[in-house]
Structures are given as C-alpha cells and as structure tokens.
Amino acid sequence: MSVNKVILVGNVGRDPEVRYLDKDVAVANFPLATSESYTAKNGEKVTSTEWHNIVIWRGLAKVVEQYVKKGDRLYIEGRIRTRSWEDKEGNKRYTTEIYGDNMEMLGGPRNQQGGNDNQNQSSSAQNDKGNSVNEPDFSPNEEDDLPF
Fold it and tell me: Rounded to 10 degrees, what is the CA torsion of 114, 104, 72, 29?
C-alpha cells in the first residue's frame, strides 16, 4: 500500500492561468506560497517560504478562474506529480506539481471592491470523472431544535 497525499495552506503567488482543452476541459495553474517561521539560536526570527506549482482540473478549475486571485489564502488537498520533458536544446527538464483535488478559500469570497468578507467558500473535485462544487448554506434554520 502507498499514499500520495498533500495538504497545503498558503497564499496564491499570481493570478491563476486557466486554459481550455478539448471538450471544454479546463485546467488552472498557479503558484502557492507556504511559509514557516522560527527563531534562530541568535534570537533572529527566520521565515522560510516554499513555492508550489498547483494544477487544478475541470469544474474546480472553472471555480478557480472565477474566484481565485493573487494574494488569496487557500487550503489545497491533492497529490504530488513529477513530469519530465526535453527542452529545445535537448536537455531533460523536470517539474513537480501538486494536482489539487479539493480546495477551500480561506477568508471568504471577494466582494466587488476586491476585499474579503467573513464567509468561507468551499469547493471540491471528487475525482477525475466528475467534479462538484460545494458551497455551505449559511441561511438560518427556523426549525432549529438544538437546546442551546
């Protein structure tokens, strides 16, 4: 048995690039920065940032196209993929990407002025055959029978 699972929480480094392939299949690409901070032995605070290449497919890519912008904070769940190719000079090149299966926008959707409100927007891609977008229902339930 083996597991290929990645969970990242970070900030989008630039506006996503979204392309459409055959049969209206969307693919979104963008960098995601994750940072960690620690205090060195000399008392200096050190921050280390790692950049991840994120790839999102199909319906979830369309959500990215519509809602995700540079600077947004995202939760990404997915798997690591490494691919290789030959460049124009014949050199073998490699890249490692995170294929996102689930995404959650942290801090809420943007309002028309580009700011954030306090709601969260959730989106999920269940598998490669079909994607679903789940948005939480924040409407009050009038028939709430909870004792508190």
Answer: -110
* Residue 75 CB neighbours (<10 A): 16
Strand partners, 50: 34
SS3 annotation, 50-106: EEEEEEEEHHHHHHHHHHCCCCCEEEEEEEEEEEEEECCCCCEEEEEEEEEEEEEEE
Phi, psi of 84, deg, nearest 5 = -135, 160
The predicted-structure confidence for 5-44, as pLDDT tens digits, reads as follows: 999 999 999 999 999 999 999 999 999 999 999 999 999 9
| pTM, entire model | 0.70
Burial class (CB within 10 angstroms; exposed 0-12, middle 13-18, buried 19+) of 60: buried
Query: 3-class DSSP state for residue 41?
Result: coil
Q: Cα separation of 16 and 38, whole Å? A: 30
